[in-house]
User: Fold this.
Amino acid sequence: MIGFLRKQFALLMVIAVYVWAIVAIAVYRRAEAPPEAITLRIGHWQLEASVREALDHMAEQYRREVNPNVYIVQDAIPEMVYGQWLTTQLMGGTAPDMLEIGLGLPYHLIIQYYNRYFLPMSDIVDLPNPHNAGTPLEGVPLRSTFKDGMRNSYIEELQQFMNVPLSQFGVRIFYNRDLLMALTGRETAPSNYREFLRVCEMIKAHKDPEGEAYIAIAGSKYHLPMWESMMFDPLTYGVSRVADFNRDGFVSNHELYVGFKTGRVDFEYPPIKARYRMLREVSSHFQTGYTGLTRDEAVFLFAQKRAVFITTGTWDARSLQQQAEGQFEVGVMDFPRPTADDPTYGSVVEGPTYEKPAGGFPFAVTRTCKHPEVARDFLLYLASHKKNEELNKIIGWIPAVRETKIDPFLEAFQPHLVGVYGCLNLFLGGETWVKWLQLYSLYQVQQLSYEDMTAEFAPFYIKHGLKDYLELQKDWRRGMQKNELFLAGIRADAMLAPDNTSRSKWLSYLSLTTARQVTPEIGQVSTVKMVMGERSLPKHGPYEYSPEVIAAVKARLVGNE
Amino acid sequence: MKKCAIALTIAVLAATACSRRVVEESVDTLTATGWNRYRMGEYALAIEAFTAVIDAIPESDPRHLAALYGLATTWNLRMPVGDQDKDEARRLYDRIIELAPASDLAGWCLLGKARMIHLVPVGQEPDYDAVREAYAETYRRFPEAHPGHEAFIYMEAARLVQWTPQATRESAAALKQFIAQHPTSDLLGAAYGLLATCHEILEQPRERLDAMVLSATNRVVDPDSPVQENSWLYWQIATVAEFEVGDFETARHYYRQLLDEYPQDIRRYGAEKALRRMDALEAKLRAELKNDGEA
Assistant:
């Protein structure tokens, strides 16, 4: 017997561990839910305690109010490994019943995964959410109950709505109210840009108990893009007036290049100059070496009461509050703006930054789900008027559903639906982009002046930009081929569709064909001709009145009077 | 032994019969499966599904042609490009045209062949004369069908890319004729859109604006898609009207339409500002006119 045990020890160990694993799983599962219950697993990357707490709370409520036999089990996976985990689970057929989508995978893979592993939601988006009965959204089609009309849930490549969004996100400035009061005597943060700079100066003038100067703004390479997109880039909106040649409201990278090449715009153009000046002014209040620091290092500085301001999104709101609990009060403010009479920025600042309402925290139901109707119903429950409000209140996020109340702490996060946006896209790929990144990073750390940076970059950009632009065009032709592949699938869908849906499918096919294959080719040729200088540009900018137009308006006024 | 052989034969025959029945029953779903595989990027499985249908039913059956079309499209467009077999695709397209020359499918095959000439590999330029001729043939043979209309639109777009006044004038004439002959075509909006481009190239802002307005009126938008919309088109029309034509009425109309239909659009700020700007300019010009009159 002993001889047998010795000989087969390894095998017996494997068997023992296997049996132990089976027993352990059975015991855990039993603890999760009774044997006859419907257990639904929900996977996401939100490790914040408030998210898990909120989902558990909503699951409990769902069991109490809707279906006592449903148990929800969460798989909260760290961000770093979410993409790999998702892929493994989906491919192995062991994915949770509901999954949060969007992190850790390139877009084309997300599309493929949606197609292969998830159930479309299109059949319910035009029906009312049954859990909205008795609320202001009773009888309203599901997609119209969301602030963004479920735009982000619609995957054009599949022509299907694929997920249900549960929250919205925004970026603002958080500040330490107590420290602000102690160092500046102010109860609230300034909304005026000049005042904000003055407050930053005051903060820097004070020293902490260790004798080190306080830091006004905790920055890092993670946080800088938020300052750029929310505060600096919108100053360049005015570039559109001289360089939006195709009149779509935006300035693409090639339009900007044409603008520079034809001398219609340069780095002396006030909106562009203002953008970089503001960056220099604001970032001079970040801690030294911020471009080499990570998000956690900046948050640490803020949590340690060494910095007064930090910018981040709603996703960090509760975490920051929890870190500050018992130590200081956290306030939220909008990005400060210069006033119209500001001597430097008054002529270029136009309004707040436009923020597109977009649903986030989206969940889709997997094809391996044994109870897809229950899973969908649970998501609809979370997306109902009252429950979405409640869910987001617990988490500390903004509800995705219309006519819901927002947590007072997050009032400053109400999105600006009327505003301006950046119109300075210098990206042409290749050498020019590398050159720009080199120079810009030196400018960020104040090793290069604006004059030196632009004097070195502008001629390089104009000279080498054409080559980089033409290289980019290869991607455009590749895109045409991918579009053709995609459109053939849509056309087949229309050909095979039953009579009652055939018309809608054909319309979809034709509109996509026009938008993706017909119009872009002409636009492309037009742009290439502009870039190559083979197409003359009008004397006036696209949003500037010519004398002829003024004369036409005048003539009409005379005619009318 | 003999009994065993008979039993085995019967079993094989029964199994074959069953398998035939299964194939017969699932021909329609197999074609749909083939397309689904195609959309998922599983081209080998798509080819397998289409081939199973082709092998199972005779050429005279329309479902056979539909599967042939699926197979041809897969060979034509599958990714990566190195896996494509354009010759095989062309052969299959030709076979469909030969078997059912008057069918819509033949029209799609002709269009497919024309697109093969148009969509050249990266780094090459299409032979636009050959491209236009291929589209013209599709339109000539199917002037009243979807593939013919689509071919016509592609043909005129391929003519416009020359960006010369002569080609543009010819294109404008052809587009006007198409619009007159096919007033209910689903591609009427696209035709007006191209006509607007003609007038843009010919520097005729008033005509461009008129064509843009008609393009917007006739534009096909998928009602189920929340991402297909007209906001950019309204903005374009309004700004052309305001800055190129000086037609403030039309400009106001489309800025307001943008605000009404797309209140959350990113261009809302610009549209509101434009409405104020036009009012201010008119007020200024009125004052000038008044002063001139008094003087």
Chain A touches chain B through 78 residues (CB under 8 Å). DSSP finds 20 helices and twelve strands in chain A. The longest strand of chain A covers residues 38-44.
